[in-house]
Amino acid sequence: MSLDASEVKKIAHLARLAISEEDVPEYARNLSDILNLVEQMNAVDTSGVTPMAHPLDMNQRLRPDAVSEENQREHLQAHAPATEAGLFLVPKVIE
C-alpha cells in the first residue's frame, strides 16, 4: 500500500501537524513503508503461536518489597513553613 501526497496531507491535517510541501514525498514514502511492513506482518500465520506478555523468556529482576529507608517525617517537616498533624500545609491554589 502506498500513500500519495493528498493522503499524507489529509493525515497531517487530521493529526493537526504542519508539514512543509517539500517534506510531503518523504512522509509519503515513510508512511507507505510502515504500511507495507504491517501488511507483511499481517500475512504471517500466527495461529499456532502462544501469545506472550514479553518477547524474552526471562524473569524480571525485582528487589524485595521491603522498607529500605527510615521515616524522616519529623526531620523533613522541621524545614517546612507550615505543618499540621504530620501533614505539609500548602497555600490554596484552586478556588
Beta-strand proportion: under 5%
Overall helicity: 25-40%
**Multimeric state:** single chain
User: Within the largest sheet, what's the order of strands?
Assistant: 1-2
Could you say what the CATH topology of the domain at 3-41 is called? Answer: Histone, subunit A
Classified in CATH, the superfamily of the domain at 3-41 is: Glu-tRNAGln amidotransferase C subunit, N-terminal domain
Could you give the distance between the termini? 54 Å
Number of strands: 2
Keywords: ATP-binding, Ligase, Nucleotide-binding, Protein biosynthesis, Transferase
Protein name: Aspartyl/glutamyl-tRNA(Asn/Gln) amidotransferase subunit C
GO molecular function, one term: ATP binding
Family: Belongs to the GatC family.
